[in-house]
Specification:
Blueprint: H1 24-37, E1 41-43, E2 45-47, E3 50-52, E4 57-60, E5 71-74, H2 78-95, H3 100-115, H4 119-130, H5 134-161, E6 170-178, E7 182-186, H6 192-204, E8 209-212, H7 218-231, E9 238-240, H8 245-253, E10 258-264, H9 267-279, E11 289-293, E12 298-302, H10 308-320, E13 330-336, H11 340-353, H12 372-387, E14 391-395, E15 399-400, E16 406-407, E17 410-414, H13 420-423, E18 430-436, H14 441-451, E19 454-455, E20 457-461, H15 465-474, E21 481-484, E22 501-502, H16 513-517, E23 520-528
Helix pairs in contact: 1-4, 2-8, 3-5, 3-7, 4-5, 4-7, 5-6, 10-11, 14-15
The structure holds nicotinamide-adenine-dinucleotide.
Nicotinamide-adenine-dinucleotide binds near residues 214 and 294.
Length: about 550
């Protein structure tokens, strides 16, 4: 930027549309959904601005209607990944030198394309690919992705304006260079917004990226890619590849130019990736940045002074929206004995009122889980709970995969606070309740802190300020996103930067400046106006 200190539009959160009956947006998204459902598409890879097709393909189907084919996507061979690396590095030369306002304009444009002409399509694609209800699709693929794009542009300018002190004799300038090399972005199935954000946040800061979406999200990833293309992301800056994750990863991590991993997904995959990077560390030209947001075993703890109806609502929304497939979903709850009967009554009432089925029927609150592997895993935990004496299923427990991967929202009550479903991330519509003695508040908080390896989100309900203060203190390291008298899900970009520590990730807080710092390598430039000509200092006399 040589000709002005430009100010970017102030980022505001995209308003959430309601999709109420008879609304224009509801009609538009349903029409788009039907049109997409009744046609098939082919998703090529996208390398250096070209569509790349191969001999190996996978199929795409809606989880709620798994026999219905939406299309196919192409899978990489090793040579495609090598080509993506070499062409991305070539593209980097121009992109890294592109003035920031040009990069900002591209991603602000992407935000407006999603807010406007692509909104119905990206939402319908997310409903089809990931079985999200329209509300869940709207807050993810439309609003959150728009917010990521707008806020990141603003954060970028804030970072660039952070400059050191200078004196009259020397001007100190910090340049926020992109990393030297390329970024590998690996994204999960559960958020279209995350899929868009991981490659684009790094690209915004001047990096080039190779993006591998989840096999279960390729259908909506394609819409994100189309938006990036239309917004003007130059060839080679964001490349999308699909296929065998091991082969793709091994090829990428073998490259001496690999300079950063932007990952969201499960903990064990991330730990293995970290290990592989460590094994290759002597080959890299630079120490790679490793950013990973991973699993959770998120809690709700209620104090005896909390309101049973509020606690129950937090459980039913926090545990079951999007079938519990949010990394932040409540999956273990600690409820005091005195209020449990009321909480139980309200939870059962809520769950029995849920409708389950296709997201096309907008009266459904619950749809299908993502794939057969997830369905089978959840069914086996439910079957085990039916047998175990320390577990009791108080509502739900049914499942059926004949048409879609449907698991009934299930509440397990356990007498053992270390019962397997209190500790293991299941990633589905299953929540486990442990009822504790009212007078053991502090011990219960310590139990919450020690039960799981994760530390992503957690919520505490209490009307007693001293009890709340105790919880805030004891649970200091138990969650990266901590909620007081609210459910533990639903973080909003710009309002609640998101991420957890311990086994939940590197806590680099997507949707905040902290994340963007990871994609730059600052260069300090000191310019002295009149250079000294004598080595002697006055003290030498
Ligand atoms: P996953 O780990 O199965 O897959 C994530 C990505 O990693 C996919 O693109 C997948 O293809 C890829 N992958 C799988 N095996 C790989 C390998 N061996 N090498 C390289 N890449 C590999 O996760 P998922 O089922 O897509 O998503 C659910 C998980 O993501 C949950 O654990 C959830 O908690 C977590 N998640 C965390 C956050 C967060 O912000 N902390 C957000 C969303 C999801």
């Amino acid at each position: 930027m040589g000709k002005g200190f430009f100010e970017v539009p102030i980022a505001i959160n995209e308003p959430i549309k309601t999709y109420a009956p008879d609304s224009e947006e509801r009609k538009e998204v349903l029409d788009t959904y039907k049109e997409m459902y009744h046609s098939t598409i082919e998703v090529p890879m996208y390398i250096n601005g070209k569509d790349v097709k191969t001999n190996e393909t996978g199929t795409m189907a809606p989880p709620h209607d798994h026999k219905h084919i939406l299309g196919t996507y192409h899978k990489a061979e090793k040579k495609h990944i090598e080509e993506a690396i070499s062409t991305a590095l070539e593209a980097r030369k121009k992109w890294a030198a592109t003035p920031w306002e040009q990069r900002a304009a591209i991603f602000l444009r992407a935000a407006e394309l999603i807010a406007g002409p692509y909104r119905a399509k990206i939402n319908a694609a997310t409903m089809l690919a990931q079985s999200k209800t329209i509300h869940q699709a709207e807050i993810d693929s439309a609003c959150e992705l728009i917010d990521f794009l707008r806020f990141n542009v603003q954060y970028m300018t804030e970072i660039y304006s952070e400059q050191p002190e200078s004196t009259s004799g020397a001007w100190n300038r910090l340049e926020y260079r992109p990393l030297e090399g390329f970024i590998y972005a690996i994204t999960p199935f559960n958020f279209t917004a995350i899929a868009g954000n991981l490659p684009s946040s790094a690209a915004l800061m001047g990096n080039v990226a190779i993006w591998k979406p989840s096999d279960s999200q390729v259908y909506s990833a394609k819409v994100v890619l189309d938006v990036f293309k239309e917004a003007g992301v130059p060839d080679g800056v964001i490349n999308m590849v699909m296929g065998d994750p091991e082969m793709i990863t091994d090829t990428i991590l073998d490259s001496p130019d690999f300079s950063g991993l932007h990952f969201t997904g499960s903990t064990h995959v991330f730990k293995d990736l970290w290990k592989k990077i460590g094994m290759n560390i002597h080959n890299y030209k630079t120490y790679p940045r490793i950013v990973g947001e991973t699993g959770g075993k998120d809690f709700i703890v209620a104090h005896k002074t909390s309101h049973p109806k509020q606690v129950a609502t937090a459980i039913t929304r926090g545990a079951f929206e999007f079938q519990g497939q949010k990394c932040s979903a409540a999956s273990r709850c600690y409820i005091p004995k005195s209020i449990w009967p009321e909480v139980e009554k309200f939870v059962k009432e809520d769950v029995s009122s849920f409708k389950m089925g296709s997201p096309e029927d907008m009266s459904n609150f619950i749809t299908a889980v993502i794939h057969e592997g997830s369905f089978n895993k959840l069914a086996s935990y439910i079957d085990q709970a039916k047998k175990d004496p320390e577990a009791e299923i108080i509502t739900g427990g049914g499942y059926d995969k004949s048409k879609g991967y449907f698991i009934e929202p299930t509440v397990i009550k356990t007498s053992d606070p270390q019962y397997t479903t209190m500790c293991t991330e299941l990633f589905g519509p299953v929540v486990t309740i442990y009822v504790y003695e009212d007078e053991t508040w502090e011990d219960t908080l310590k139990l919450v802190d020690n039960t799981s390896e994760y530390a992503l989100t957690g919520a505490v309900f209490s009307e007693d300020r001293y009890a709340m203060e105790t919880a805030v203190r004891i649970l200091e390291n138990a969650a990266g996103n901590f909620y007081i008298n609210d459910k533990p899900t639903g973080a909003v970009v710009g309002q609640q930067p998101f991420g957890g520590a311990r086994a939940s990730g590197t806590n680099d807080k997507a949707g905040s400046k902290l994340n963007l710092y990871r994609w730059v390598s600052p260069r300090m430039v000191k310019e002295t106006f009149v250079s000294p000509t004598d080595y002697r200092y006055p003290f030498l006399g």
